[in-house]
Design a protein that fits this description.
single chain, alpha/beta, 5-stranded parallel beta sheet, two-stranded antiparallel sheet, globular, binds adenosine-5'-diphosphate, binds adenosine monophosphate
């Protein structure tokens, strides 16, 4: 199964992917996680991406498109895309690559949530860098204070989750990423709208109800 997960930063994409990939046995391809991995490894791509990410801007399309098409090709059993495409140019490039491979996306899940909710979610987010698990100090706390349930590693706050950068990321989302939804609606794709301002479990079950219908 191939799925695209859309939604603003903080909508809960990474959180929901933890459950989705297990149920459908597909790969979680998060452009943000891949970029953070490149930065941690000190690669050329990581170095190029750094200043954009730290300011809440988007990394240039050509770099992202190459990186994600490569990731998609390596996910033979299917995948869920998280954080990509984030511009109409990226969505067009993805369509072209899928066409060339004779493949199509089975569903597009769109997580809907208002800006006020996002700010509280992002500023309270904590991540486990090694396991990639996502927590929230209030809504999804770890069992032991500030430690990952899976690995026991210390949780950290992403630099770009600080309030000044969050504001820029929201603006970037409304200016450059929201049009991607319009692009997909115009092309008549199967879009599943899900209200993401409910409990994590409720959002998960709404997504499962819909994806079960398209799972092959
Ligand atoms: P995204 O990947 O879309 O940027 P995350 O999955 O990292 O978003 O979620 C952002 C923050 O909000 C995290 O701290 C996460 O624990 C929390 N969160 C995710 N979904 C919900 C929800 N339905 N209700 C409350 N908090 C949530
Ligand atoms: P995320 O983890 O999805 O919140 O992404 C963190 C940062 O990585 C973003 O603020 C961007 O700077 C960069 N990024 C992630 N995905 C993309 C993308 N598809 N296009 C451009 N930049 C991206």
């Amino acid at each position: 199964m191939r799925v695209i997960l859309l939604g603003p930063p903080g909508a809960g994409k990474g959180t929901q992917c933890e459950n989705i990939v297990q149920r459908y046995d597909i790969r979680h391809l998060s452009s943000g996680d891949i970029l953070r991995g490149e930065r941690a490894a000190g690669s050329e791509l990581g170095k190029k991406a750094q200043s954009y990410m730290d300011s809440g801007a988007l990394v240039p399309d050509d770099l992202i498109i190459e990186m994600m098409i490569k990731a998609i090709k390596s996910a033979e059993k299917g995948y869920i895309l998280d954080g990509f495409p984030r511009t109409v140019v990226q969505a067009e490039a993805l369509d072209k690559a899928l066409d060339a491979a004779g493949e199509k996306v089975d569903a597009i899940v769109n997580l809907e949530v208002d800006d006020e909710v996002i700010i509280e979610r992002l500023t309270g987010r904590r991540i486990a860098p090694k396991s990639g698990r996502v927590y929230h100090i209030k809504y999804n706390p770890p069992k032991e204070d500030n430690k990952c349930d899976e690995t026991g590693e210390e949780l950290i706050q992403r630099e770009d989750d600080k309030p000044e950068v969050v504001k820029n990321r929201l603006k970037t989302y409304h200016d450059q990423t929201e049009p991607v939804l319009g692009y997909y609606r115009n092309t008549g794709k199967n879009i599943i709208d899900v209200r993401a301002d409910q409990d994590i479990e409720k959002v998960t079950s709404s997504i499962f109800d819909e994806l079960d219908k398209v799972d092959k």
